[in-house]
Automatic annotation (TrEMBL):
Signal peptide: none annotated. The lineage of its organism: Eukaryota, Fungi, Dikarya, Basidiomycota, Agaricomycotina. It comes from the Eukaryota. This is GTP-binding protein. InterPro entries: Gtr1_RagA, P-loop_NTPase, RagA/B. It comes from Dioszegia hungarica. Component of the GSE complex. GO terms for biological process: cellular response to starvation; negative regulation of autophagy; positive regulation of TORC1 signaling.
Amino acid sequence: MSAAARRSKLLLMGKSGSGKTSMRSVIFSNYSAKDTRRLGATIDVDQSTVRFLGSLVLNLWDCGGQNAFVDNYLTAQQSTIFANVAVLIYVFDITSTEWEADLKYFDEILTALRENSGDAGVWVLINKMDLADKEDPARKKYEERKADVIAVEERIRRERKEKAEKSGKKIPEGEEGGSIRCFATSIWDESLYKAWSSIVHTLIPNIGLITSHLTFLRDLCLAAEVVVFETETFLVIAKSGTPLDTDPSELDVAETESGIGKLDRQRFEKISEIVKGFRKTCQRTGEQWLGFESTFDQCSVIVEPMTRNSFVLVVSNDSRIETAMLQYNLNMARNHFSEFSQKPSLDRKCGLCRGSKELKYEAEGDDDPSVMAWDDCGRGLQLLG
Ligand SMILES: Nc1nc2c(ncn2[C@@H]2O[C@H](COP(=O)(O)OP(=O)(O)O)[C@@H](O)[C@H]2O)c(=O)[nH]1
Ligand SMILES: [Mg+2]
């Protein structure tokens, strides 16, 4: 592994049977939801490493949820497990009949996490929603559980602060333990991709910069939307315009004009699921899936490899734009994009990079006012220009 590889420790915890290993297998190991029925119980901690987007390495600790193990995590193994955690993903089972006990475990684990990794992000996934939705389509139970979880987190944060104040210490900035994010999930639908994309999205370095380049590419192609997916998992990494999960009432001007707000809000997750399913079928028949290209009445779409570890989706709803043009502009952008995901530094900054505070290192093109975004794709600009 290169010295530049970033390691991010992700803890996957929650009671036995809540679906931790199933999720991990569907997202990272190409299992279908049905395949997960044959998974055995996880004994103790199952560690796996996932290389995600070149230099980002996710170190996933799937912690078996049987009582004896959990007690061990909280005592003898506490500092091994909870030190240097980037993210805790805590999985609850919505069908569990022991909510009080489940919540108590969560309480103990979050307390241990905060003592050892004050700045870790926390995601709570309330899983198996497919089983609850039939009886409770309004999701009242989910809302109640979510409120309980948030109350636990708030209490822990308050108590930590009070304890620190009493002993005359101050909790370092950034380690106060921010709010937690809660998702309703099921391994049987795209909700799982939504939650995991949200997690992984926050771990990607230079995300603001990737977004501004995607927005530039979108505008250059007169496209409606440009989205980047990670190749193996097909999780969404970033999109053009406003951040993932922006409310349709807060879209940027280009998004509003192209009617993005009227599209299905789960569209990216559905694409992830479809592509992964289709790729599996291809594997069975000995074919390789390389990409997708199509022109419909009012819209052109391409899904193409972007960098070594990512695919890009470009959607244009301007009938004058042909897919070959989208591909052409993409080719021009590709080299510069691959620098973000594969190199620890850039050889050359383009006009967009120059204006960004995210890039701390110096690179060629820093003080040249004539450098356009992005410099080496001038021909693409001219063609559309
Ligand atoms: N209906 C349904 N079953 C699930 C879901 N997630 C996991 N399961 C099932 O729950 C069982 C236990 O899952 P497993 O991943 O081993 O749980 P773990 O102990 O938390 O690792 C398996 O039979 C899975 O197929 C879900 O979202 N919906
Ligand atoms: Mg397991």
